Amino acid sequence: MKKEFYTLAYFHLESDAQLAKSKLESEGIPAFIWEENLNYHTLTNNSRVRLQVYKSQKDQALVVYNEIKGYAADQDGKPIVCPNCKAEKSEIYYSRKGVFYKLFPFFETRKYRCTNCNFITKPEP
Q: Which of 8, 27, 30, 120 has the most CB atoms less than 10 A away?
């Protein structure tokens, strides 16, 4: 029987993926880590590590993962609110378009991506 996978999340650091994997496995959900072409992406500071689960356990895995996932907050510690759907589930987002931002991502202006509706916004000054 062929098993199909669902990509639960992408990480820039394998250690972050390992922490999430450990939590899922402690809840009885098998999880797998896949590294995507780290040689190229490490040079461009754009490495990606996928955390995957079986599609049959996707819903259960999402519940566990959302409990441990940290969302972006402002300087006062309040969650970033999406202007599009009003959800408080935004994460820091860098588009890294162009060679300069791939090599030096810390120069790019920080933006936020809503995990609920995928709306991308810039923070208020």
A: 8
The answer to whether residues 6 and 53 touch, using CB atoms and an 8 Å cutoff, is yes
Boundaries of domain holding 125: 72-125
87 neighbors 117 (Cβ within 8 angstroms)? yes
Residue with tokens 């935004």: 90
Q: Is 45 left (phi over 0), alpha (psi -120 to 50) or beta?
A: left
pLDDT in tens, 47-103: 578 899 999 999 999 999 988 887 788 888 888 888 899 988 888 777 777 888 777
Is there a single domain that holds both residue 125 and residue 107? yes
Bridge partners of residue 90, in order along the sequence? 114
Which is nearest to 80 in space by CA: 117, 43, 123, 45?
Answer: 123
Is pTM, for the whole model, over 0.70? no
**Residues 52 and 78 placed together within one structural domain of the fold:** no
